[in-house]
Design a protein that fits this description.
By secondary structure, the chain is of the alpha/beta class. It has 20 helices and nine strands. The strands form two sheets. A seven-stranded mixed beta sheet has the order 3-4-9-8-5-6-7. A two-stranded antiparallel sheet has the order 1-2. Helix 14 links the parallel strand 8 and strand 9. Helix 17 packs across helix 19. The radius of gyration is 21 Å and the shape is globular. The two termini are about 35 Å apart. About 40% of the residues are buried.
C-alpha cells in the first residue's frame, strides 16, 4: 500500500515538501533521508547506475552517477521489463509560470533527454497551463502564452520530434484523457486529497480538482493517438521530489482502474545561489542563473551572490581550506561540470586550501556561460512552426525504434 497521507499538517513537522512549498526547519537544509522515509520511496544506489549503463551500453548521465537523481519508485520494475524486451514511455512536465527558465528548471529535461536517447522510448511532456492559471492568478491567455514560450526552451534541450509529444492542458484535455481523470477523481476522497496536498477551506475548488489532471498522463490510454491497444505499457516519470505527492496518489489509484503504477526517478532540489537554505525566487533575479542571462550577468551573479565555504582571509583559507559541504560553486559544478577528474581535482585542491574561492568561481562562470549560451543558440533556432509540430496530435510511428 502506498503512503498517501502526508504529515504536513502536524505541528511537529520539521520540513514541508509539496508541489507548491519547499521549506526546511528553521531555514536549514532539506533532510533527504527523512523525506525518503516519510514519502516511502527508495534510494537510488550504485547498482542502478551500473545496471542502466549495462542495459543501454552508454555512460550514465552525470546526474545519475553523482546522485542528483537520488530516489525512485519501482525503477527496478522498469529495468526488469526493459530487460525482458518490453518498452516503456517517459512522462515529465513543466508548470509555465514565468517566461524565462532558470537552470533548476532545465535539470529534469536534460535528464529526460538522456533517458529518451539511452532507452529509445517515446516521451510525453505536459504543460500545466491550467494549474498555473489557478495557483499564480494568471489569466488563461497569459498561461497559454507562457506555455508556448516554455515549450521553446524544452524543445531546445534536443528532444527527438519523432518520439516526443508536448501538450498543454488547455489544448489537450478531453476525450480519453478526461475519462481517465474522472476515473481517478472517483477513487480519491476529499479527506485523502487534503491529507496528501494540505488543501484548506480557503482554497478554491479548482485546486482540489487539479491532481487528476497531472495523474493521468501516467496511463497510456490517455494518449490514444500514441498508444492505442497498448494499455499495458509502463510509464517512467523523471521529476523533482516535490512532485511525489501527485504520484503517490496516482500509484494508489492505478491498480484500482486497471493500470500499472507509474515508476518515478526523483531529483534533489537545485540550490539558490545564496545557499541551500535559500530559495530561488522569480522576485529575486539574483537568486538563480537564468537561461536568458548574459556572460556578464552570470559572472556578476556568481562572484557577488554565490555563497561559498571559503575562509574569510587568504591566510585562514590556506590553513583550513574550504568547507565543501556548504559551498554553492562546488554544488553547481557537481551538477554541470561533466569531467569527473577535473571536479575531483577542484574539490581536493579547494578543500585543502590550495585553490582559492575566486579560482573556483571563475571556473564555474565558464561552465555556466558555456551551458547557457549553448541553450540560447538552440532556443533561437526553435520556430513557432516547430512548436506546432511537437504539439500536434499525431501518431509517432517510429517511437520505439
Amino acid at each position: 500500500m502506498e503512503k498517501t497521507e502526508d504529515k504536513n499538517q502536524q505541528p511537529e513537522e520539521e520540513q514541508v515538501v509539496n508541489p507548491w512549498e519547499v521549506s526546511a526547519k528553521d531555514g536549514g537544509k532539506i533532510d533527504y533521508d527523512k523525506l525518503i522515509d516519510k514519502f516511502g520511496c527508495q534510494r537510488l544506489d550504485q547498482s542502478f547506475v551500473d545496471r542502466v549503463q549495462r542495459l543501454t551500453s552508454r555512460p550514465p548521465h552525470v546526474f545519475l552517477r553523482r546522485g542528483v537523481f537520488f530516489a525512485h519508485r519501482d525503477f527496478n520494475d522498469i529495468l526488469d521489463a526493459y530487460e525482458r524486451g518490453e518498452k516503456f514511455y517517459l512522462y515529465t512536465g513543466r508548470g509555465p509560470s514565468s517566461e524565462a527558465l532558470h537552470l533548476g528548471h532545465l535539470i529534469p529535461f536534460m535528464f529526460t533527454k538522456y533517458l529518451q536517447d539511452a532507452f529509445k522510448v517515446p516521451l510525453v511532456i505536459q504543460l500545466t497551463d491550467d494549474e498555473k492559471c489557478m495557483w499564480k492568478n494568471l489569466s488563461v491567455e497569459e498561461s497559454q502564452r507562457l506555455a508556448r514560450e516554455n515549450a521553446k526552451d524544452i524543445i531546445a534541450c534536443g528532444f527527438d520530434i519523432s518520439k516526443t509529444f508536448i501538450f498543454s492542458d488547455f489544448d489537450y484535455v478531453g476525450g480519453a484523457f478526461y475519462k481517465n481523470m474522472v476515473k481517478v477523481a472517483k477513487c480519491v476522497t476529499y479527506n485523502k486529497v487534503v491529507g496528501i496536498f494540505g488543501f484548506t477551506g480557503e482554497d478554491h475548488i479548482g485546486k482540489v480538482s487539479f491532481p487528476p489532471v497531472q495523474a493521468v498522463p501516467s496511463f497510456p490510454s490517455s494518449f490514444p493517438h500514441l498508444f492505442s491497444g497498448k494499455d499495458n505499457l509502463r510509464c517512467l516519470i523523471p521529476c523533482a521530489i516535490d512532485q511525489d505527492p501527485y504520484f503517490r496518489m496516482t500509484r494508489d489509484v492505478a491498480p484500482r482502474i486497471g493500470y500499472h503504477k507509474p515508476a518515478l526517478i526523483e531529483s534533489l532540489f537545485f540550490p539558490a545561489l545564496q545557499g541551500e537554505n535559500g530559495k530561488m525566487s522569480a522576485s529575486d533575479p539574483n537568486s538563480a542563473i537564468y537561461v536568458t542571462d548574459s556572460a556578464k550577468d552570470i559572472k556578476y551573479k556568481v562572484n557577488k551572490h554565490a555563497f561559498t565555504g571559503g575562509q574569510e582571509s587568504i591566510e585562514k583559507h590556506r590553513q583550513y581550506g574550504a568547507n565543501l559541504e556548504v559551498d554553492i560553486p562546488i554544488k553547481y559544478l557537481n551538477f554541470f561540470l561533466e569531467d569527473d577528474a577535473e571536479l575531483e581535482h577542484i574539490k581536493k585542491e579547494y578543500g585543502a586550501g590550495r585553490m582559492l574561492t575566486g579560482e573556483v568561481k571563475k571556473r564555474l562562470s565558464e561552465v555556466l556561460t558555456e551551458l547557457v549560451e549553448r541553450h540560447r543558440r538552440a532556443r533561437a533556432a526553435v520556430t513557432d512552426e516547430m512548436v506546432d509540430a511537437f504539439m500536434a496530435v499525431r501518431p509517432l510511428p517510429n517511437m520505439f525504434d
